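[DERIVE STRUCTURE TOKENS]
===
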Amino acid sequence: MVDAKQFRLRYDKAMEQSQLWYSILQRLYDYTMPERGEFAYKKYRAGQRRNRRLYDDTAPNALTQWSSQTLLAMFGENWLTLDPGKDVTEPNSSIDPQLAAQKCQEAQDTFMEHFNQSNFQYAMFQSLMEVGISTGIILITKGTWDNPLHFTSVPLHEVCLVPGPRDTINDVFRTYKVPAGVMEQTWPGIKMPDDLKRLAKANPVEDVELIEGTVYNHDAPKDKAYSYIVMRKDGNEVLHEEFMALSPWVVIRSKVLNGEVVGRGIAFDVQGSIYAINQMQKQELKSSSWNSGPVWLDYTGSSINPNTARLEPGMMIPIQPSVNGGPGIQQLKVDAGLRVEQFTSDQLRQQINNAFNVNPLGNVTDPGDKTATEISARQDHWYKINAAAEARLIQAKEQIFHVCWNILHSFGYVNTPKVDGRKIKVEFASLATKTQATDEINKLVQFSQYLNALGGPDVVQAGLSYGLDITEIPDWLAEKLNIDKTLLRGALGKEQYMKAAQQQMAQQQAPTASQAPMQQPTEPLQPGLQTLGG
């Protein structure tokens, strides 16, 4: 059991480090996802407007599209595959490989059935929105028998992190409020003090501020190395504790600098453009306000005042002549024209959209001007751009799978407690594998095209004339294009390839009836017949 004082010391240290980020994160969230960030502000109330500083929607829209694309790329169709492990595939194994493959497929179908029935897609989308800014947090907990997996997208402002070995996260703490009446439902068996019991009965909707955290327990056995703890923020008593084999927290970061635990997303890289476009839009609105509602001047003592007249289009206002003969009423001249010297708003928006890779296929509303080859190339380019940032996202994918597998095992849906590669191994699809598959297909297409071009009659004739051994062309071409050697086993042999090339040359050189030369006339054609084409 983790000591309550030690737990609070860890929490206080983690909170101290997290608060260093609050200022810059609040500013970024204000301009990208204002409804999610509550770092430097007091707690928002329900129904309160939160986008008062946002004047341009480019960054929020780009962040939304990036999150959707990333979610589809990471957890699209066939994002994982279960295969027999090394204990099955080794030569001396007594396990039937076909039966093992069948069992693996059944386990995969069971996992995906419960995974797809959960709320994962919504929760993951919310967390990826925060990954695009900084760090996404997913909490995976046990559900019911019918729906065993439950995912919670925890806002970053509620969480503080403690780094672990090899760029991992050891401890995760969360501070938030829970109604007193649902605490026993949320954590069955929780130790409720007398005051909380009275509060839960007298006023069950009253919020109780809690610290929820998972810490690595060095004294615990390896199969239960993590302690999940719930305690009151203003108390020193542990209300609930569970021992777990895996941490239920999944921390997702696309980029982390040395010495930092909080991630830096794409919004960090283009925050200058995000702030600039918002400032430009703000100034443009002010400029339009000055031009549409100018300030008017009038002499004192005049008949014009707010109680006798209103300045509206088409209205006639009688005024008395001024003492010095000047105009009685006039507009205050204000130069409210907005001047942009270096960047235009369109350029700034394009920089933000390019950073988030918005519309990698171009304008989808008008695809008629793009060939299938160009669309395929754009999609392949999108895979390559995102493959570099996906390295860290793959780690999150592995964590999600193993935690979910462990929960399904606790319900009895799968037999083994974990997938360690011995009986069953898991492989995750990635953008890198998709890009590699596309490259391999393109290489095979090139191989076929080049082989057809190099095996024509001209090459055969050149080979016969200059001693070129055309039977070595397929092997040479396959080596240059790095074609898989297994694809060449069923290809034509060298002798058959030579005969086929010679036959092709003979067929192309032999004149046909339609290609027979026309007999030349003995006398010149008449001008009339020449005009008519003979």
